[in-house]
Design a protein that fits this description.
Layout: E1 3-7, E2 10-12, E3 18-25, E4 33-39, E5 46-51, E6 58-60, E7 68-73, E8 78-83, E9 92-99, E10 106-109, E11 113-117
Parallel strand pairs: 2-11
Antiparallel strand pairs: 1-3, 3-8, 4-5, 4-9, 5-6, 7-8, 9-10, 9-11
């Protein structure tokens, strides 16, 4: 069964850091584009970051550029999001997904992990 499980969320102060993980199973992880999205209460789900199957290319939403880093370890079937200089507006549930490289359809979404940035 295809499965994506996020972890690493929690409560941090503004300016702090957190690293999220997304553990993948049930598919050939190294063949898929991987993405992070986030959703704050009452708002639409927002794209955060993407990484190609080999990890050679990444892209980010403007609001997190220079602060967040997406990476992957294909040997461990795991996707990461390193979040630094966190701001209250980063508070959201963070989700990972796996995207087919041809056609771009989504294979699966994870259940999400809560990130709260507050003093």
């Amino acid at each position: 069964q295809v499965q994506l499980v996020e972890s690493g969320g929690g409560l941090v102060q503004p300016g702090g850091s957190l690293r999220l993980s997304c553990a993948a199973s049930g598919f050939i992880f190294s063949s898929y584009i991987m993405n992070w999205y986030r959703q704050a209460p009452g708002k639409e789900r927002e794209f955060v970051a993407t990484i190609t199957s080999s990890g050679g290319n990444t892209n980010y939403v403007d609001s997190v550029k220079g602060r967040f880093t997406i990476s992957r370890d294909n040997a461990k079937n795991t996707l990461y999001l390193q979040m630094n200089s966190l701001k209250p507006e980063d508070t959201a549930v963070y989700y990972c997904n796996a995207q087919r490289p041809r056609g771009g359809t989504i294979l699966a979404w994870g259940q999400g992990t809560q990130v709260t940035v507050s003093s």
